[in-house]
Request: fold
Amino acid sequence: MSDLELLRGTLDVLILKALAADAKHGYGVAQWIRAMSGEELLVEEGALYPALHRLAKRGWVQSEWGVSENNRRARFYALTAQGRAQLELQTRTWDRYSSAVSRVLTSEADG
Amino acid sequence: MRRREERELDDEIELHIGMIVDELRAKGWSEVDAEREARRRFGSPEGVRTAMEREWEGRMGRMGRWIDGVRQDVAFALRQLVRRPLTNGLALATLVLGVGSTALVYSVVHAVALRDLPFPDDDRLVRVSQTSPQGREYSVSEANFVDFRRRQTTMVEMAGMAVERPILTFDGQAEGASGMRVSHTFFELLGLDPVLGRVFSAEEDLEGADANVVVISEGEWVRRWGSDPGVLGNRLTVDGTAHTIIGVAPSDEAWPGVGVFTPLAPMEVAQRDNQIMESFGRMRPGVTIEDVQAEMDAIAAELSDQYPESNDGWGASVRPLRSYFVGQRQTRFGGLLMGAVGLLLLMACASITNLRVAQASARRHELRVRAALGARRGRLRSQLLVEGAVLALIAAPLAILLAVTALPVVRALGSSSLGRLGDAAIDAPVLGVALAAGVVTLLVSGLAPALLLEKDGGPGALRDRSSGGVRGRIRGALVAIQFALAVAVVLSAGLMMRSFAAMTTRDLGIEPEGMIAAAIRLPIDRFSPPERVQNVQLLMEELEAIPGVLAAGVTHAPPFGWMQPSNFVALADNEPDRQEDFQPVSWRAVSENYFEAAGLSLLSGRVFDARDMEVDGLQTVVIDRGLADLMWGPGSDPIGERLTWFIPGGQHVEVIGIVEPAQDERMDADARPRIYRSYGWAAWYQPGVVIRVAPGAASQLIPELRATAARVLPSVPLIDPVPVEESMRSVVAWPRFTLGILAAFSLAALVLAAMGVFGVTAFAVTTRRREIGLRIALGARPEGVFALVLRSSLVFAAIGIALGLGIAVGTTRLMESVLYGVTRLDPATWAAVPLLLAAVALAAAWLPARRALRISPRSAMVEE
Reply:
């Protein structure tokens, strides 16, 4: 089993999905993606935080400082209305894309 | 703002790591192990930060983002410079050389030719001169100045000055000084308000006023009077007459060394044809120089009608006053030097570009990695520009240091005879030019590799060999440019050298070796013309009596002096109606033994003797071979023939002798045909003295010459006696100075060109290792391989040389006016320079090409 490298666009949509239910801090996001993907997707921290920033800049995500479950200062990220719309849009796009890819991959290959 | 973001990111990272630790602890890890593992898993926080930078960039203002980028680039550039000491050292040295010489040459040219005159609103000041019917420019006669000034309306005021060598007497000791007669309008017009006292009044400035007042210069006041404020009212003996000091004027910057001013008191009628003074004017507001010219043309035409005997066909010329202070020679030589230093700077650009392109090859990997990591092109370009800027910033102080160090040497090379060269300094304008030169170099040499690298970032990036070829061609083109520029620089130095040789080896007619020149002054109001002749004869006899002195004579215009009097002659029996049809000549009034003292040999007839020396004695002339050829045909012997001498009414003179031509006007031009009159004819009151002594004895005899003069005529001191050989050096000062600088530039140009060929050959050997190895493996003969490599780089040098010769056909045109005795297309120079550069190219390519022979085929193939 190899770590799947997350493409930038994919990581963005995964983060949006992670925040769809509730606000999370960075660790929480990484943890959620790992758990939900059945430990297949390992999020690079080097990519996670810039991605969160990028999303915040676009106005899809907002952040505020709060206290974590172990009583530490933590920045919590939450989805904005815009972010929620974006998540739906990207999910549909992803569905179309992945089903298209799998149709190709599962077709009768003759070289 | 950035600080807070960084701190917050650190908090987030710490939290993240802390969470991982908690998770691991929950699985039963020890605290220490969990901590270590968490940090391992998280990876480098630095990596996160770096990745965040780009996200932050979007949030920072454009300016902030830019500054931050530059900050990183500067730090990065410094590390780069240290990592490659050799190429960067070479680039730095080249830059220092290029910018330093630009600053140096500009400081010199600025001082002698470009800077403002030391007068307020100097661009409103003009010089008015007379023009002969043949169109030659002359000074102005006193009577014409008076009329010009009275009739003109386009100028606020006009002023005049005439150079004098007054005798000052202190404690009974007479000494020659430097002075000027000036009009009462002079100081005010130029904006030189007196430091103390007053300047001349209109009444003191009238012909025959005999006001006996004197204004001294500030320098004289400081030197001789110790800045005593009580100097006003003191007596100063000028030309044997007591004068009252009425004022102190700040004139030293414009006329250094001139200590004494007396009123011009111009002759209003007499000697209208004696152009002896300079006249200036200040234009009225809104008036252009063309307006003044038009008015002066009209006045000159009136005078031509009114006084045809002296003014027939004479016009006026109005030019900026600058043209009086900055001679054409200075402007021309200055232009030549600036042009040469410009070429050198371009060569430096090409060299640095070449070095940096070479570096870029070595750094291709590094830059490609950065591009892959997401560095945008603009960012890479700015990084390369910043590297150039850092180089320039380091080079700038070194270049200034070079200029400051070399300036005294250059000033010494030029000697005091180059006008205001002594004032050359590294000041604000010079620093500005140096800065501009540095910026240009930086932009040119920084942008080229940047653009080149961008090509690399494209799809072709992986095809190493092809881009190596592109790079090779670009470097080759740079070498060609270097050689083309080097040809232009070396060629100009070569032509200058030939011209200088022609100047210094030509037959002057006069013999500078063993010749001493001095001056005496027999003031008009103390000696009548016959007394002047008598005293001159007495003094010359006494001087000739000194052992070691062979001959002594006077001339009203000394060799290579500022005064170069002219007149016009015609055959007496074939006199034209109009002055413009007369033959222009230069003339000298000389005493009996002048020819012997000057070393001019008599070719036919006789020289002057006592009969000719009498005032109003025989109207005889001696002419030079050139005039005889011109008037009576080559080889003619016109002894006893008569000429018309152009003075009001015309005067018939008889030719009594023919002498060899004297090239004593300018070093870089042949003298005009010459006519000599006897000193007795005009008995000029401040003649030059020429003394011929035994070879080598000149310096030792000077004190004795002075002592003898002081004994014979206590009130007529021998002024500034100097061996002519010494003063001759100042005559060729500009050519010598220019030659020295051009020679230094040529050397630099050759070194830069050699560096270029060396680099490109070494590069070719490196990039073509595989091919060369293959050829050797396939049995190519070593000589063949060697020739192949040599050819690959020499072809660029050859193209450059050819190109340079083409360019030089145009650029040497600019030199035409400063060359003497050699044409700009001098075959010897044009043959020698390409050969020299070819030799340099061959020598510089030889060493790296040898390396090709040592390539082992095996290792060359394995490496790739």
